[in-house]
Amino acid sequence: MNLYNLIIQDKEEVSLNDVFLEPQNKQHFVQLIKEQTYSKELQEYGLPVNNKILLQGSSGCGKTMTAKAVANALGRNIIILNLSNIVSSRIGETSQNIKMIFDKAARERSVLFLDELDQIGKARGSDDKDVGEMRRLVNTLLQLIDYYPENALLLCATNHAEIIDTALLRRFQLKINYGMPSADFLDVFYDKILAEFPEDLKNIERKYGISFAEAKDHAFTVVKGNLIKKLEAGTVKE
Predict the structure, then answer these.
(1) DSSP symbols for 161-213
(2) In this structure, how many other beta carbons lie within 10 angstroms of the beta carbon of residue 5?
(3) What is the pLDDT of residues 2-28, one digit of tens each?
(4) Among 13, 60, 152, 186, fewest CB within 10 Å belongs to which?
């Protein structure tokens, strides 16, 4: 399997201000970026630099977008690896592929973003043989995280932290929770994404109790439907 086929290529430039984060979470990332920026100075005082971060919680609430924003703020490339795409029936091959990607990220001082970390946890336990093989894979990942250099940044994401091996969880210096946004927070989000449209297209029925990604899809679908109706009726001004 070609190493580069496993990496998700994404050149989207995102700033931290583009990500809808709870104030406490945003402050965590602001400090994380500053720690990376002043890592040498902090280390001179014997202070460790946080470089292994777990983003955990609801899907569609900005974990991947956050990782892109952090990489952009640091002026580094981001390597995105979805673990659901890399786990193969040959566990040895999977371990080798993960090691190559860790080595690449460390060598280039890239931001390494491992998505769906729980895939390793989920894969364990189907039968006795599989338990042994997956445990060896987890051990490989533990070693890679332990020896990941301080001048590189590792971000991992999961929707199901409760099923991840506890030994893995302990490796992360910072765990940041992503919950479903409140109605007020979603209103701010709706206002922002609808602001670019004419007034007669902004007035949509808003859904709540959903993620930012779902809210965006809902809003754009309704706006497109309303615009198409106007186009068909010939009421859209050029």
Answers:
(1) GGGS-HHHHTT-SEEEEEPPPPHHHHHHHHHHHHTTS-HHHH--PPP-SS-HH
(2) 8
(3) 555 666 666 678 899 999 999 999 999
(4) 13
- For tokens 């039968």, name the residue: 127
Which of 3.40.50.300, 3.40.50.620, 1.20.910.10, 3.20.20.120 is the CATH number of 3-178?
Answer: 3.40.50.300
Bridge partners of 11? none
Question: How much of the chain, in percent, has pLDDT values that exceed 70?
Answer: 86
8 within 8 A of 82, measured Cβ to Cβ? yes
pTM of the model: 0.86
Q: What is the pLDDT of residues 84-110, one digit of tens each?
A: 777 665 666 778 888 989 999 999 999
Q: Answer yes or no: is pLDDT of 225 > 70.
A: yes
